[in-house]
Amino acid sequence: MHIHDLIGIGFGPSNIGLAIALEEKQQRSKPLTSLFIEKQASFAWHPGMLLDHAHMQISYLKDLVTLRNPQSRFSFVSYLHEKGRLADFINLKTFYPSRHEFNDYLAWAASHFDDRCLYGEEVFQVLPETQGDQVSHLRIRSRDAQGAVRERLARNLVVSVGGSPYIPELFRPLRASRHVIHSHHYTAEISKHGGAKRVAIIGAGQSAAEIFMALHGHHNAPAIDFIMRARALKPADDSPYSNQIFDADFVDHIYSRDDQERRELIKEFWHTNYACPDLALIQQIFGTFYQQNVKGEDRHRLLRRHQIAAVRETSEGVTLTLQDLNNGHSFDAHYDLVVLATGYERQLHRGILEGLAGYVGEMQTDRHYRLQTTDNFQPQIFLQGACEHSHGLSDTLLSITAVRCGEIVDALHEGRKCPAASKLTTV
């Protein structure tokens, strides 16, 4: 069986950036053979939230390459030039392209590597290949859409599988309910609910806010309860000094802190990334409720400082028991549809690597996103987007993707094993 120098699991922005960094590095160094395996049938970036009028929250300069190599032919500017839209984009006078356009940019970049990506296969297991008492290679097992299992060998592995929708505990028994959807699947599922008269949106972040405005703008729009534990919708802090925590240089700083200080830093800046819609979107929502008051309507409700105490499914929808945290009063509200804009959890890599448990231990990573392994384990395994607790809030975002991919490629070429040092942190 052919042995690949590198197999990448997933082909979203992080591993597309890695493929680009590999290609650009190989113009100056010994080539590494690579293969990427993606479970989607074709490239798509958060397709469930490709809403009309939704824009990026970070600058187009934080694309797949620019912060690592401004001269790269894979930049967003190069994409615009190739598509014949560079002058028109300049005339928009914005740093923030639509989400539709950025998705198209990512698809354009991915298309350059169609010969190195296998779509429609889901990796479900990674096993050690031993020679004597040494682990020399990895056996990557995947399953295609027809259920056929494929196996491939690799000297190194990069895991970039993104997050999975976070379902609050009270809603987990309703995972299969047709009356509950997660924002991750919103655009695919909402068309099935055209007759919904009353909808609950749970969450206080960008996705919740975008879905509220999207539903409000629908023909025959439903009545919406916007439910959150917070006292107010808080805008993202995108001021210059706060934004510096997303710079590549800040990764060195946060990684070098002890565990307690690192946790404090992440907590301090938590609202730069979580539960923080754009200010312009918050103003739109405020204006919507203001106009409702002007008209004497009460179709939508903003239920601040409310938490869900109980969930009960009926044949016609879902009944939520809501507790007002200001006065302690509880009441029941019935909905045809509940939308969970409750974010993501990032544990998928643990399940995929479970077969290596005896070699990777607590899954600690070094500064270069590389797992610590036992002395007899030769392959290098890197994680992309699963190191927030050790590398900072930027780890799950596009902000450091370009630079991180360059660091991983350099580490791959150097081929050094991850040292067993106290600085390593569990992810």
Automatic annotation (TrEMBL):
Alphabetical UniProt keywords: FAD, Flavoprotein, Monooxygenase, NADP, Oxidoreductase
Pathway(s) where this gene product acts: Siderophore biosynthesis
A GO biological process held by the record: intracellular iron ion homeostasis
Cofactors: FAD
A GO molecular-function annotation: monooxygenase activity
InterPro entries: FAD/NAD-bd_sf, Lys/Orn_oxygenase
Domain of life: Bacteria
Annotated family: Belongs to the lysine N(6)-hydroxylase/L-ornithine N(5)-oxygenase family.
Name this polypeptide is given: Lysine/ornithine N-monooxygenase
Biological classification of the source: Bacteria, Pseudomonadati, Pseudomonadota, Betaproteobacteria, Chitinivorax
